[in-house]
Amino acid sequence: MFSDNLSEALEKLKLASTDSATDSVESCLDCLLKALAKNHTEASMKIQEMGVLPLLPTLLNPQSSCTPKVANIIAEVAKNEFMRSPCVEAGLIPPLIQLLNSTDQEVLLQTGRALGNICYDSQSSKEQFASTNIAEELVRLFQKQTEHEKKEMIFEVLAPLAENDVIKLQLVEAGLVECLLEVVAQTVDGEREEDIAQLKTASDLMVLLLLGDESMQKLFEGGKGSVFQRVLSWIPSHNHQLQLAGALAIANFARNDGNCIHMVDTGIVQKLLELLDRHVEEGNVTVQHAALSALRNLAIPVVNKSKMLSAGVADVVLKFLQSEMPPVQFKLLGTLRMLIDTQAEAADQLGTNGKLVERLVEWCEAKDHAGVMGESNRLLSALIRHSKSKEVVRTVIQGGGVKHLVTMATSEHMIMQNEALVALGLIAGLDLGKSEKDFVGASLVSVLHKLLSDERSAPEIKYNSMILICAVMGSEPLHKEVQSLAFIDVVSKLRAHENKTVSHQASLTEQRLTAQS
């Protein structure tokens, strides 16, 4: 019964749409809306089968009283993912965009819903949007609006569209950024709920535009861009939402070395540190996280590290050691790890900081937060690898960090395994006496035996494991364990390894094992 009624209505609609008899069209549209309300998917399929979508553009006439209903039908149909491409193919986008000029609230509401649903979560329809002039149209419309509701509705259509990189660039070229900056300027001191909402939407959208490489680079303009300058001025703002957007924007601008070097040279670090200082006490977690993300990215180029260390970045970052928020802990660890890479003096200072090492060891046990756990292990290893200092090694031994580095050597990530083995080699080389007990307790020797016996271990893992075996031979209890595990068999097999460095180290290790057996 359901589908017969619907088919009849669709047939009528086909006839009626040609002679534009409004009354009969209206009743057919009502019937369609009813059917959609009753069984969404089935009704949509039927509409598609009977070829009704291509009739709708002519019905989307700004003068017609049917228009809101037609737009509503499109919005309902486009809730189904399989209907989104057909809506674009049926030519519905240009007439819908035109309707955004309407003054009728109902038409605007339904048109906004329809456009929003067509491009919601659908890659293909976004790609099709990219070949229309929707970016220009929407920006032009936005510039004309004065009412909050209409701006919000255009924002709702813009946000999903701006996820597509091609459209990001089109929106930037059409002047959306200038509109957003204006909205921010108008609403930043507003107390009304709608001001707060608009400020958030505009600044979030601004950050979204910076996620595209081309759009970001266009707005950076070699660091001279007025947009870049304006966004910088958000960081010292008194408004948390703007501080957040400013810090996120900097993190996005800091996606390549050239930008990072320029930004550090122009004093952005100071602004971010002042922002972080304001949030140690009144801790807004999202702002902390964003500012730390920006610092971490800025610390990637080697030339920036010493400049940032002299600016006191490490000291400010350490103020957040007490944070109980995993996202903040994660970024804090990443920032410190980036800063000390190749910086021996800084690694030495931080590595002998008992409080820091103690906290790292605690986070190495954060089973619920794999990210924090991994970063803590990596920082612990980095402090040793970059300082190569006996004092740091002692601080790590005293803090109980050795067993975590042994566990890290069994990680599923080769890069982490390797970082662990190099750090363990330095511990054994710099203070075997003090670390012997921990090595025995953490079954280091049997871990190394597994790594050497495992076919899947990468060449550098095998190489560093053998170096470590040689390094622990000077300890009597560890030497005994090496003997009891028949290492000679495993190592002599590796003499035939295809990697020359591995096979050479296998010969050396075999000689060492034979001499000391």
From TrEMBL:
Alphabetized UniProt keyword annotations: Cytoplasm, Endoplasmic reticulum, Mitochondrion
Repeat positions for ARM: 91-126, 267-313
Single GO cellular component term: cytosol
GO MF entry, a single one: guanyl-nucleotide exchange factor activity
SMART domains with a match to the protein in the record: ARM
Subcellular localization(s) per the UniProt record: Cytoplasm, Cytosol; Endoplasmic reticulum; Mitochondrion
Pfam families in UniProt: Arm (PF00514)
InterPro entries in the record: ARM-like (IPR011989), ARM-type_fold (IPR016024), Armadillo (IPR000225), RAP1GDS1 (IPR040144)
Protein name in the entry: Rap1 GTPase-GDP dissociation stimulator 1
Species whose genome carries this gene: Sparus aurata (Gilthead sea bream)
Gene field: RAP1GDS1
